Amino acid sequence: GGGVADAAIATVGAMGVRELLPELVALIKKPSGNDGARQRLRAVRALGQLGGDQSSAALRELLTLRVSLFPGETRRFRSAVRRVLDRIPGSQPGGTAGADPAGEKP
Fold this sequence. Notes:
The protein is mainly alpha-helical.
């Protein structure tokens, strides 16, 4: 079942095992088993836990991934990726740390 895979994915994120970032991305692009959609989302969350520039770049790339023949599933996936990406400091393209230090909006 997905229990071992889910535990492995959670451990990678929680323990900060950045060396496995390529494997997380590969799993997201092509999940295995009958529970692929759930595994994909767990791997996206693990990328968010890893944080950093490599995770941010991988998540931005995943925003173009078509995960299903059904447009609604792809939209839900991309929305989940955006939510995770928004939680990583400095993850916005061309930005650093997200907010204006003075707290002002242009």
